[in-house]
Amino acid sequence: MKITYLGHGGLGIHVNGIDIIVDPFITANPKASNINIEELKADYILITHAHQDHILDVEAIAKRTGAKIVSNYEIVTHFGNLGLEGHPMNHGGKWQFDFGTVKYVNAIHTSSFPDGSYGGQPGGFVIETNDKNIYIAGDTALTFDMKLIPMQTKLDLAILPIGDNFTMGIDDAVIASDFVECHKVLGYHFDTFGYIEIDHTEAKNTFSEKGKELLLLDIGEHIEL
Ligand code: NI
Ligand code: MN
């Protein structure tokens, strides 16, 4: 499994020959000017919640690629009304796709569309494949619900927000990694705006002091699991 950081909450995942984009917020992110959305491959677009900083480039990428949108019912309906194909889910449900199984799991956050309309409830994704298993937390607070995940899934990577203010910060992300029983963490949702700037060295040290690894990728950089 190859995971590319697209900036903010955005990810590109390549697994089993399939390309998945998560929460693309690229064209309005000056830090992501090295990413050209016209060049992104997508068979699926996973969306955690309806906030602008997670859906901005969904329509453009889905229209060009024909990617199927996977998200909560309200978000899939919203994009369906724009003529885009989707697969609706809701919390606690899972579905077997051609690349693996996706479960839409709880997140504590909000989820209105940019115009204020209802975007359903926010979530995260647990993706299980015959290659690796990952948890994409989405925008969320630390929550005991995370303890449910390792009861069913042995994770190889937890992708957690670490920017604080709108989501968990570093200290809570360390606890979240305990809850999900995964000590390899990819941090995201940091540095994009003034409210969520972090000290990278301090963040990594906070994890390493607990015997954990925090990965911070440059935008456009990838890891192989
Ligand atoms: Ni949000
Ligand atoms: Mn956000």
What is this structure, in a nutshell?
Helix content is 17%, strand content 28%. It has helices at residues 52-55, 58-65, 73-80, 170-179, 200-208; strands at residues 2-7, 10-15, 18-22, 44-46, 68-72, 86-89, 94-96, 101-106, 123-128, 133-136, 157-161, 184-188, 213-215, 222-224. Nickel (II) ion (NI) is lined by residues 49, 51, 109, 139.
Describe it for me?
The protein is an alpha/beta fold and about 220 residues long. Helix content is about 15%, strand content about 30%. The chain has five helices and 14 strands. It is globular and about 50 Å long. The relative contact order is 0.16. The model has no long low-confidence stretch (mean pLDDT about 100). The site of manganese (II) ion (MN) has 7 residues, from helix 1. Nickel (II) ion (NI) binds near residues 51 and 139.
| Main sheet record | 7 strands, mixed
Question: Which spans have pLDDT < 50 for at least 5 consecutive residues?
Answer: none
What is the general shape? Answer: globular
DSSP helix count?
5
- Identify the bound ligands: nickel (II) ion, manganese (II) ion
Strand order of the largest sheet: 6-5-4-3-2-1-14
Order of helices and strands: EEEEHHEHEEEEEEHEHEE
Rg, Å, rounded: 16 Å
Total beta-strand segments? 14
Q: Label the structural class.
A: alpha/beta
* Beta-strand fraction estimate: 25-35%
What value does the average pLDDT take?
A: 98
How much helix is in the residues? Answer: 10-25%
Terminal CA distance: 5 Å
